[in-house]
Amino acid sequence: MTVNGQRWDLEHGAQRASVVQRGGALQSYLVDGLDLVDGFADDERPPAFNGAVLAPWPNRIPNGRWTWRGRQHQLPISEPATGSALHGLVSDVLWQPEEVQADAVTLSVPIAPSAGYPFQLRVTVTWSLSAEGLRCRLGALNTGDEPAPFGVATHPFFRLPDARVDDLELQLPAGQWLETDSNLAPVALRQTSGTQWDFTEPRSLRGLRLDTAFTAVSPDFEATSRAVLSSQGAALTIWAEADFTWWQVYTSDYFEPGSDRLRRSLAVEAMTCAPDAFNSGADLIVLEPGVAWSGSWGAQARLG
């Protein structure tokens, strides 16, 4: 067993993927032998939540403080640089296998009540490969005795062959983006139309620095929203079901100067709620005792 726990290698046709226990994370995804996610080695802890599940909240809760139904809570500050509680409670723990197949694996992890999150959940993730590409199905069950606020996302870093961030074009038909302050705490929702945050049509990411949440994404006829990365004739479509109403896009700018990971890949995270949703309530899921939720996102490649 490595630092990331057990690893499961999935296969379907020309697709290969690896999933590890730590964070229930996607470690690698290859199509025709080409890497489409920026992962990590077996003996390397994921440097930036690579591929991990983020629950029971994604993104940041400024100062780790939030109020729920008249009760104040204080979460540990996990990102000292911004003074935030970042990306939930399960991204750095070992998940347990529930079902393993040649092309799919299901993992689960319990969330026990704590001072900062006094609720009880069981969170699951199923990673699978099929003719439709990669799918990530996320689930949560309230195993406690009171309603529990909940949000979830996954943190994949995507890449295309022979392309870094500045070589990519992004299309994400979002009507609004979330302005943040110097600590990445929410300030206000803004309209994307006519601004540098307008990706309704494919646009180059060259020189753009993003760690930005988008919402009001136009769905297709199946109520699915999509982001498309493209470069040199290759494209990767990331789709998400209707409950994923927010998208975080991050251009890998916070790595140390000189690091090969700096602007090497693009994080595109479909989220079920807004940053700091525990305070704002924006698209927050509330699970009643005994109630379960599930939703999926996925990716499909076209390589030349």
Describe this structure as you would to a colleague.
This protein is mostly beta strands and 304 residues long. It has one domain: Beta-galactosidase, Chain A, domain 5, CATH 2.70.98.10. The protein has one helix and 27 strands. The protein has a nine-stranded antiparallel beta sheet, with no helix packed on it. Strands 16-25-24-21-18-19 form a six-stranded antiparallel beta sheet, with no helix packed on it. A four-stranded antiparallel beta sheet has the order 1-2-3-4, with no helix packed on it. Strand 12 (121-130) and strand 13 form a beta hairpin.
Mean pLDDT: 97
Ranges where pLDDT stays below 50 over 5 or more residues in a row are none
Looking at how many chains there are and whether they match, the oligomeric state comes to single chain
Helix fraction bin: under 10%
CATH hierarchy: architecture: Distorted Sandwich
Q: What radius of gyration results from the CA coordinates?
A: 18 Å
Strand content: over 45%
Report the top-level CATH class: Mainly Beta
Number of strands: 27
Specify the overall morphology: globular
Do you know the CATH topology? Beta-galactosidase, Chain A, domain 5
Task: For the largest sheet, list the strands in their spatial order.
Answer: 10-11-12-13-27-23-22-17-20
Instruction: State the end-to-end CA separation.
Output: 37 Å
Structural class based on helices, strands and sheet pairing: mainly beta
Most strands sheet: 9 strands, antiparallel
